[in-house]
Specification:
CATH superfamily of chain B: Thiamin diphosphate (ThDP)-binding fold, Pyr/PP domains
Shape of chain B: globular
Radius of gyration of chain B: 18 Å
Largest interface: A-B, 20 and 32 residues
CATH topology of chain B: Rossmann fold
Largest sheet of chain B: 8 strands, mixed
Number of strands of chain B: 8
Number of domains of chain B: 1
Distance between the termini of chain A: 16 Å
Low-confidence stretches of chain A: none
Oligomer: heterodimer
Mean pLDDT of chain A: 84
Number of domains of chain A: 1
CATH architecture of chain B: 3-Layer(aba) Sandwich
Mean pLDDT of chain B: 91
Strand order of the largest sheet of chain B: 2-1-3-4-6-5-8-7
Number of strands of chain A: 4
Structural class of chain A: alpha+beta
CATH class of chain B: Alpha Beta
Largest sheet of chain A: 2 strands, antiparallel
Order of helices and strands of chain A: EHEEHE
CATH topology of chain A: Alpha-Beta Plaits
Number of helices of chain A: 2
Shape of chain A: globular
Distance between the termini of chain B: 59 Å
Helix content of chain A: 10-25%
């Protein structure tokens, strides 16, 4: 296995508009639609398979609402 | 929004203005993100850049970036950018605008800015309709597509933007989609560092207007961009957009020519000697 840079995906809930691009286009299917709502009534995505994230950054680039960011994983 | 948002591009964006006004799934957010990411990766001096935008949904882009910005009159983003570029040659104007603003009302300004080879980067968001006014058909709507003003299908031929701009004399012409974000970001980086008229057409989904009328959800439109767009090296005249056929994307033109500012500088020196 390659030593991949392990970053953690984080969703900024107040900016999400619920388009679902992160759920659809993540190559590792890290996201899934949750039942949680934000203050605007948007059904938010949630991170269910965070361990499988390869830190490709596609969700960060594809999110039209600047609502996904990467932060360094403190466990690594 | 009173809460402090921790985002890695907060030096390049006006975080107090977010969330932006664009619809859920709109490609303009991805275009703005690619532009801001390119500035972030190049560590571009924000005092040496001006973001100019026209009218329309894409016109709002200048309000969200932390550079100097112009929100100009309809179709006249390029004349403003021409003035910036020729009056201060240190500053690079970046025009982010829609197809209706750049090619319908501002079409003449665009071909003449390309002909003069003015040093600027033009990012054109092509969403195939006039999104803000209610998704009417425009000069880029492909044949047979439905809009509120063409409910039985559009009968007009659309512009081939890359062919139009390259024949007008642009030094860099590319076409990408909002699905090809990394290629788009690299193209923007190349356009920011290039001295000359650079044009990037970005195919972008209009989810609320065009998508709803043509029975496509935001995800369907993105899948469509992923499946129908192919990267090929062809002549710009062959890169037409027709429904049911593959759309050719990629870099079309990359040449070097003296810019308007260079030629003007030479003329000024020659005449004052």
């Amino acid at each position: 296995m390659f030593p991949l840079p392990k970053n953690k995906v984080k969703i900024i809930k107040s900016l999400c508009k619920g388009c679902g691009y992160c759920i659809e286009f993540c190559p590792k299917n890290v996201f899934e639609r949750s039942t949680e709502l934000n203050e605007k009534g948007v059904t938010l995505p949630e991170i269910v398979r965070g361990d499988e994230c390869i830190s490709c950054g596609l969700c960060v680039m594809l999110c039209p609402d600047f609502a996904i960011t990467m932060e360094e994983n403190p466990d690594e | 929004m009173t809460e402090q948002i921790d985002y890695y591009l907060e030096d390049y964006l006006r975080m107090d203005r977010l969330p932006h006004i664009w619809c859920a799934g709109c490609g303009l957010g991805i275009i703005l993100k690619s532009y801001v990411q390119a500035l972030y990766e190049l560590e571009y001096d924000l005092d040496k850049i001006v973001t100019v935008s026209g009218i329309g949904c894409a016109g709002r882009a200048s309000g969200y970036v932390n550079t100097d910005a112009f929100h100009t009159t309809h179709g006249r983003a390029l004349p403003f950018a021409t003035g910036i570029s020729t009056s201060n040659t240190d500053i690079k104007p970046v025009v982010i605008s829609g197809d209706g603003d750049l090619f319908a009302i501002g079409g003449n300004h665009l071909i003449h800015a390309a002909r003069r080879n003015i040093n600027m980067l033009v990012i054109c968001s092509n969403n195939f309709n006039y999104g803000m006014t209610g998704a009417q058909y425009g000069p880029t709507t492909p044949r047979d597509m439905r809009t509120p003003t063409s409910p039985y299908g559009n009968i007009e031929n659309p512009f081939n933007l890359v062919s139009l701009v390259s024949s007008a004399g642009a030094t860099m012409v590319s076409r990408w989609t909002v699905f090809h974000v990394n290629q788009l970001k690299n193209s923007i980086k190349k356009g920011l560092t290039k001295n000359g008229f650079s044009f990037i057409e970005v195919l972008s989904p209009c989810t609320t207007g065009y998508g709803r009328l043509n029975k496509m959800s935001p995800i369907d439109m993105m899948r469509d961009l992923r499946d129908t767009c192919k990267i090929r090296k062809v002549h710009p005249t062959e890169a037409t957009i027709e429904p049911g056929k593959e759309v050719i994307i990629g870099d079309f033109v990359d040449i070097e020519k003296p810019t308007y500012a260079d030629v003007l500088d030479q003329l000024t020196r020659r005449s004052t000697e």
